[in-house]
Predict the 3D structure of the following.
Amino acid sequence: MLYAILCYHDEDFVGSWTREQDAAVDEEALGRAGQADKTGRLGPVARLLPTTSATTLRKDDPPVVLDGPYAETKEQLLGFYIVDCKDLDEALDVARDLGAANPGGAYEIRPVGLFQPGGAAT
């Protein structure tokens, strides 16, 4: 089963890290993600650019395009990991390990329905 580990944090807090602090967190997180990679569970990993670079398409009638994120929140979605785990407990173990590299924030673990054009849904 594929799971997305969605990484939420206060964007201003993370943005206040020095380049060295940010690189250290990235290095440790990628090292921990490497453990999942060695066991064949790690899929794509993405770090999103700041919400100030976001564009939102509101599905009104007619649709409206807005600068910025969809909602005002205390924490923002900053990136995600895709992991292939046998069950939620295993995905939680991966998230706990990744969380040790990044202080604060929250991880949302959500099953992924993968749809491939011309292929079967998994």
